[in-house]
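Aim 2 progress update. The chain analyzed this quarter is reproduced below.
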Amino acid sequence: MFASAPASSFRFAVVVSLLCLAAAAPAGARSDGVRVGFAPQRVVQGSEAAIGVTVRPAGARCALKVRYKSGNYQPDLAAQSATGGRAVWRWRVPLTAATGRAKATVSCGRAGRVSRRFMIVGQVIPPRITVEKKGFSVRNNPYGGASVSYGLLLTNDSPKFDALKVYVLVNFVMADNHLIGTATTTVPLIPAGGTYALGSDLGFPGAAPVDRLEVVIQVGGHARTNTPMPALANVHIMPDQFDQTWMGEVDGELINPQPSLVLQSAQLSAVILDQSGNVVGGGSGYAFATLPPASRQVIKMTSGFRSIRMVNAASAIVSVEPTWVQGGG
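Predicted C-alpha cells:
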C-alpha cells in the first residue's frame, strides 16, 4: 500500500502550482505596468496631439500606434525608451484624418500596454483660390497706343465654403521683369469647388510689350451661401462687325431656372480659349432685364475682346454674378 500525503501538504502543492501558473502568464496580458499620464479628448484636423504614459519598470521600450476611424494609422511615430519611467509622443493630426473616434495604443513589451480613445473634429479650412489658367493678347491700335485683353480661370479649392470678396491684382510684366501696367478687380463670390472666369482689358498710351501676367489674390471671407446660379445656353463668339479679323463680342442666352426667385440683374465675365485650351484673353458685360422664374433673355458681352484675333478664339467660358429677389418682390 502507498502512504498518503497529509492534507496540508496537498493544499501547499496546489498553491505552489497556481503561483507557478501566474508567473508563466504572458506579460503582454498585463497593463498595470503602463498607465496613461495624459491623453487628448478632442483634436481638430491639422492640430497637434500628445499622449504621455508612466511605465514600470523604467527604461522599457515603448511604441505608439494611432488608428483613425477610417482604419488609417498615423505615420512616423517612433518607438522610445521610458526614461525615468515616462514616455511622451507628440504628433500633428493630418488635415485628411477621418473625423470620429480614434484610438491610441501604447505597447511597452513585458510592462504591458494601454489604450485610449479620442475624437477627431473636422477643421474649417478657409477657401484658397488657385489660378488654373491665365493668358492675354495684345493689339496695336490704328490711331496709336495698344490694348491688352486678358483672362484668368480662378478655382476655389474649398469643397464646402464659398470665397467672398476675392480681390485680384494683375500686373503686366515686361521681359526685363519691370511692370508696365496693373489692373484690379474684386469678385463678390466664387462658389465652393467652382471656377470663375475673369476677363477684362487694359489700354496703354504707347506700345504694350507684355511678356507675362503676375497675379496676386486675397480672399476677403468665406461662408456657406448656397447662392443659386442662372444657367447659360447657346454661348458663341462673334467677330467685330467693322473688322472681322478681330473678335467683337460673346453672345448667348441667360436662363432663370429658379422656381421662386426673380433674376433682377447679372454681371457677366468671360475667358476666351484657343483650340488647344490656352487662355488668349477675356471680357465682360451686363444683363439688366428682369427675369421671372423659367424665363430667358439674350446676352451680348462687348467689352474687352477686341484685342483677340478671331483665328485664335475657339470657345468661351462665362461666369455670372447674379442679383436675386423673391418672386413678386
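Residues 1-30 have pLDDT under 50 and may be disordered. Residues 231-326 form a domain with the Immunoglobulin-like fold (CATH 2.60.40.10). These observations will guide the mutagenesis experiments scheduled for the next reporting period.
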